[in-house]
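Supplementary Note 3. Input sequence used for the single-chain structure prediction.
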Amino acid sequence: MMSSAKEAAEPETTKLKVLALHGYRQNADSFRSKLGSFRKQVSKYVEFVFLSAPHKAAPLEAGGEQDPAQKSWWFNKDDHTFKGTNQGGPAYGFDESLRLVEKTWQAEGCHGLLGFSQGACFAGLLCDLSARGMTKVKPQFAILASGFRSGSLVHLNYYENKIQLPSLHLYGETDDIITKDMSIALSDTFLEPEIVTHPGGHYFPAQASMKQIYVDFFRDQLQLYLEAKELANATEENILQLEPQAATSGASDGEQPDDSDSDSD
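The predicted structure, written as discrete structure tokens, is reproduced below.
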């Protein structure tokens, strides 16, 4: 009866849980809103966890008022601002964001990453860290839109080895903020990236023509996850079945010498 009650309290997971990382000057709420159509397209397969970066972005104009709703995962310029094209700069605040993402990942039980712009850059770094066993974040797949390689000095060695992870890379042909060559450079760090382009600029594409691409990707990842989970459960069940047999066998082996001694007497 206790086993049945436990099973009722823990229904089988039928959706993937994806941690969504917003772009520079966005936050969890604004990113959730921008992905409204996309979320509806894949709602059968995915549940999203939206997280706000821990740092406030600097005012758009020097001396201006800071908007607390505009967030940044880290800053790559000495004036504590961020620009995707900046090379050789710092990574102020990156460690704090990494700890926040790791905490959220474990608390929510996520399966994959989705990032846009700076969030996609962050997701790419997380995939690399995971491949090297240097983070608690263990993504099974990643979706990177308008992504790019980090130019911060401390991140330059993150792109030395190919990442063996299913990945979907999206970028706009006319994006003048994160140019397509920057997104291609990030996709090149993955072993077998799936690349999809759109004719627009710097945004996450969610037009109807894109729906099947997203559905196919998430459906494949969900199937892989469920198959892996089924295999793990079957392996665990086999181990549990073998343990009592091994214990019985050991007891029998231990009794045989006693019987033999008794017969010889």
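Helices lie at 2-9, 28-34, 36-41, 94-108, 118-131, 180-187, 211-264. The beta strands are 16-21, 46-51, 55-56, 71-72, 112-116, 142-145, 167-172, 194-198.
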